[in-house]
Amino acid sequence: MPVTTIAGREIDVDAEGFLTKPEQWDEALAETLAANIGITLTEAHWVPIRFLRKDFETQKETATLRRVSTVGGIPVKELFGLFPGKPAKKMSYIAGLQKPKGCV
Amino acid sequence: MSTPIVPSFDDEAGSGRKLAIICSKGNLDMAYPGLILANAALGEGVETHLFFTFWGFDMINKATMGDLKFTFVGNTAMHMPGHSSGIHHMLGALPGATAGATAMMKKMIADLDVPEVPEFLELLTASGCHMWACRMSADMNKLTEDDLYDGVEAIISASDFIEITEGAQLLFI
User: Fold this and answer.
1) Closest partner residue to A5 among B4, B44, B113, by Cβ?
2) Is residue A72 a part of any domain in this protein?
3) pTM
4) What is the DSSP letter of A104?
5) Domain of B53, in residue numbers
6) Which of B25, B76, B101, B134 is deepest in the core (most CB within 10 A)?
7) Could you read off the pLDDT of A4-59 as tens digits, one per residue?
């Protein structure tokens, strides 16, 4: 697996660029990850990102969009607004997690 | 310093990829493939259109959409997911067999945290899905837009649908 330099740090990523070691992530890194994909984080963005991190601690896998909505309580429409185009993948990238595996 | 490896999320979203799915079946097990693929496409930023026709109308008819059934009768697969042994289709015709099989399949779907059809439609609407109802099916069933799920944009003709989905990839289910 490749190692890339993000915000002056050596970060382990997969071929696409998703972080493979969630422990290398912190909130400062998230700002740079977001900027890498053209997103400026606001408080509204942090709500799902923090949910993803928290959920990952217990579930050991990345929450799907539906889970962020049903368990995290953030409407799907809002997620599409915050992370346009591919919300599930964009959120997990910024949260330093792998993209979700579930179909729904 | 080399360029960091960053996923290229906006490649496809910007490519104008478009997907159209024709939903023509009203069985519970035949409703899900279209819904799941539409959801996946929307999550990838693909413009997605669903066209409900014939028995697929049951998926958007408020009177039936929450009550689709799974049956062994006339079903060539004739087994429950996760069980390889088949059930003789004559047994599937016994009273209660369809209700039992439907309940079992609904539970399996719920266990995977996949929503029931009406809630799934809401999810797709929230994700920006376009939904269209077939004019001929509406006329045959004597239904109007008031009878249909609110996210359905309009009852349109087959040629309207062909026009709307110009350049789209097409799936018939």
Assistant:
1) B4
2) yes
3) 0.88
4) -
5) 18-66+116-173
6) B134
7) 888 889 999 999 999 999 999 999 999 999 999 999 999 999 999 999 999 999 99
